[in-house]
Every structure is written in structure tokens, then in C-alpha cells.
Amino acid sequence: MSHVPAAGPVLPRTAAGRATTRPRRPSAAVLVVLCAAQLMTSLDSTVVNVALPAVRRSLALSPAGMQWVVDGYTLALAALLLLGGRLADVLGRKRTFLLGLGLFTLASLAGGFAPDAAALVAARTVQGAGAAILSPATMSLLTAAYPDPDRRRRALGVWTAAASSGGALGAVLGGVLTQTLGWHWVLWVNVPVGLAVFRVGARVLTEAGRRPHGLSRLDLPGALTVGPGLAALVYAVVGTGTTSWTSLRTLLPAAAGVTLLAAFVVVERRAKCPLLPLGLFRLRAVACANGQALLMGAGISAMFYFLSLYLQTVLGLPPLLAGVAFMPGSLGMLAGSALGTRLIASLSPRLLLGAAGMLALGGVLWLSAVPVGGSYATDVLPPVVLATLGVGMGFVPITTAAVQGVAATGLGVATGLLKTSQEVGSTVGLAALATVATSVTARPLAAAATGAARLAAVAGGYHAALLAAAGLVLLEIGVVMVMPRLTTGAGARTAAPVLSGAPAR
């Protein structure tokens, strides 16, 4: 296997070639601010789900309106993450962080006051845009604040624990807030937290590395092709929940998306300051990390989605209890992140990624056979803990690989690319697997004569979708096999990065 240089940004050098003084160690407040911001965006991906029945009653939402309350956020997030990552590089990480956080917080306030479905979907879309700006800046600030690989590894462990637990915690928080204070508070809860994080972040965060270049380096042609291209592609796949894959409503936006993304590649090859330097994909560690994020995002998002449906539809749990049932998944993510943070210092990252993938695969396969009359304690809890433990273990090495060999000036776009891969994988994979579940369920459900037969038909669709999700996780393990050796520990401190935000040639 080839050796890939380390991810850490090198220190600026004087004209004589000597490294300047190392930056001082960041305060604990920096890590707290970055983890709190990441937790906010992770929570918001799921906190609204449990509140949807209450929102539907309050605003008279149609089924399509309910879907777009969730998908509006996801669509904007997936479409704008690359732009958000590049903004962190050209405007400055702190400035971009505060911009994204402010937009996210204001949209949360507006969403809680939404008088109708259109206003709520618009607010959720702006929330997604704020998260797309905020999330890459959060990760690039953390990466730049901890140039020492050992300190960075520990900081990434804490950060990934916050990120990985957010989705499961969102289901619990959404149930509690909806039942006690009303659905508006699943959005308003972000406001006091966002204001506090903004105030502290403005004080403790600092710009690191080179002086930002400003909007003149933003590559607007690239932004105008990749954003709409990803949005059209995701819209087409999400729409298959209500239309067929062969309908014009699916094929036309899919064709537009593919065309725009092809144009984006042409634009980036000629751009002086590309939004996405194509040379990133020459770094095998970066390419593999994004492939893993794409596949794991699809498989694990589908697992959580169909598990939520199984708990409420088949086992008959009310929304609040279904949310609480995800708590062990949060704990599994936290434990896996802590374990991965410790093991990456002594184990080969490839070995750790392989072990993490096997645990996730075992958990998803186990869930794919859960019986109709199953028990949460014996048939759901053990595989959920197993799968989430594996997912948590894999976060730190995947994040490490995603910036391996990337210079400080390209950290924003590298982290934006990783988040884009994860979100696109999650959205597109879930839509595709939902189609699998629907197609498997349709004929048995139509022929079912009893309630038990209908439950068996629905569960059969979930089983098929979860089995397909396990196949995606298996492919992710295959990507691990071609991952190059990653540089970690003390030896990484002197390795030079090989790519920055400069144009790819």
C-alpha cells in the first residue's frame, strides 16, 4: 500500500525556510463551542420527525407537505455543503462559522412561528442552508485548531461523539418537547442555544492560517452548477416516494442533475480557484473516505429510518417511547467514538475501519431478520447497540482519512466534501431503499385479509430494505480494503501536505 502524508496543516515558514512558532493550545471553550454547533445541526436532522403528526394537525399538512418539512432541510444541506466548505476557506473559518450559525438560528425562530406549510418548509430549507455553511466550518476550525495529531485525535473523538449521537438524541428530544411544550419548541430550542454559542464563539474562536482571500476567489460558475445539480438529483430520488422511477417527474430532474454535475466537472478543470479542486480525488485516502461516508451514510440512515417505522407500526410503540428506544443507539455511538479514539493511536486505521464495518454489518443483518412479533429487549436492542458501536468506531478514522494530505488552505472544502458524501448517501440511499420496501410490500399487502397478514407484509418490506442496507455496508468494508496506509501519531507531524485550495492541474 502506498503511503499518504498526514492531514495536519504545516506551520507557515519564513523566507529562510524555518518554521514559525507553534500556535498555542486552544482553550476548552473552543472545543465546547464547536461540539455544541455540530450537535445542533445533527439534532435537527431528526428532531422534527417525531413532531410531524402534531405539525400535520396544527398546519393541516398534506402527506407531501410532511415529507418536504424533512426533505427541504436535507435538500438544502446536501446541495450547499461544498459551497459552505469553500466559503470557510475564502472568507475565513470563524466568519463563516458565525454566518452559518446566525442563519440557522434565525431560521429556527421563524420556523416556530410559521403560520402555514409553505412558511415552515421555507424556514426548514433556510435552516438546511445555514447548516451547510456551519458544519464544514466547524470541522475545519477544529482541524486547524489542533495541528498536533495526538491532540487532534482526542478532539475529533469528542467532536464525533457529539455529531454521531445527535441523530438519535433528536428523536428523544423531539418526542419530549412535542408532548410537553408543543411542536414549535422543536425549532425554538435552537434559539437560546444558538445565541449562546454565537456569543461565546465570537469571543474564543480565532482565524488560523493564511489571510482569507474574499469572495473574488469563490468560483461562482462552480457554485451555480454543483448546487443546483445536487439539488436536482436529490429531488428526483426523493420524489420516488410518490412517483415511479420511470416517470417524467423523476427522469427530468435526474437528467438535469447529471448534466449540471458533468458541467461542474468541466468548469472545475478550467477554474483558477476551483470550488472543488479535482486533485483531491488523486489522494486515495480522501477518495476512499468519501466512498465510505457515502455507503455508510446510506446503509445506517436506512437502518434508523426503518427501525423507527418497525417500532411504531409493527411493535405499536407511541412516538415518545419510540424516541426513547433510540437512546441505546446514542450510547452505542458515544461508546464507539470513545473506543475508536483510543484504538486509532495503537491500531492500524485500516484495521480499525474494517472491525468497525464488521460490527455495523452484523447489527444491520441481525435487524433484517427481526420477527413480526419481536421483542424490543431481545430482537432490537442488541443489534442496534452492535451497529451503532461500529458506526461510532469508524467516525474518527474516516474523518482522519478525509483530510489526509490536505493543506490548511483546503481543509474547508475537504470537510465539506466529506459531509456532502454523507448527506447525499443518506438521502439517495434512503429513498432507493424505501422504494425496495414499497415494492416488496405492495403485492402481499394488497392480498392481506387480516391485521396480522398486513403486519407481516409491512415487516417483509422492512426486512428487504434492511438486507439491502447491509449490502451497502458490505460494500463500505470493501472500500476499506483499498484504503492506503494512514499516517497517525508523532510521525505525522513532519509530513508535508500535498494539496491545497490551488487549482488542480
Description:
The chain has 505 residues and is mainly alpha-helical. The chain folds into three domains: 26-150 and 170-211, Growth Hormone, Chain: A (Up-down Bundle), CATH 1.20.1250.20; 219-274; 280-489, MFS general substrate transporter like domains (Growth Hormone, Chain: A, Up-down Bundle). It is 72% helix and 0% strand. The protein contains 17 helices and no strands. The protein is globular. 55% of the residues are buried. Residues 1-23 and 488-505 have low confidence and may be disordered.
Beta-strand residue percentage: under 5%
Radius of gyration from CA coordinates:
22 Å
Profile the largest sheet: none
Q: Estimate nothing, just give the exact number of structural domains.
A: 3
* End-to-end separation: 25 Å
What order do the SSEs take from the amino end to the carboxyl end, as H and E?
HHHHHHHHHHHHHHHHH
Overall outline: globular
Q: What structural class results from the helix and strand content?
A: mainly alpha
CATH-derived topology of the largest domain: Growth Hormone, Chain: A
Number of helices: 17
Unreliable runs: 1-23, 488-505
Number of strands: 0
- Let me know the average pLDDT: 79
The first-level CATH class name of the largest domain: Mainly Alpha
* Fraction in helix: over 70%
**CATH-defined superfamily of the largest domain:** MFS general substrate transporter like domains
Corresponding CATH architecture of the largest domain: Up-down Bundle
Membrane topology: Multi-pass membrane protein
Pfam families: MFS_1 (PF07690)
InterPro entries: EmrB-like, MFS, MFS_dom, MFS_trans_sf, Sugar_transporter_CS
Biased composition (Low complexity): 12-22
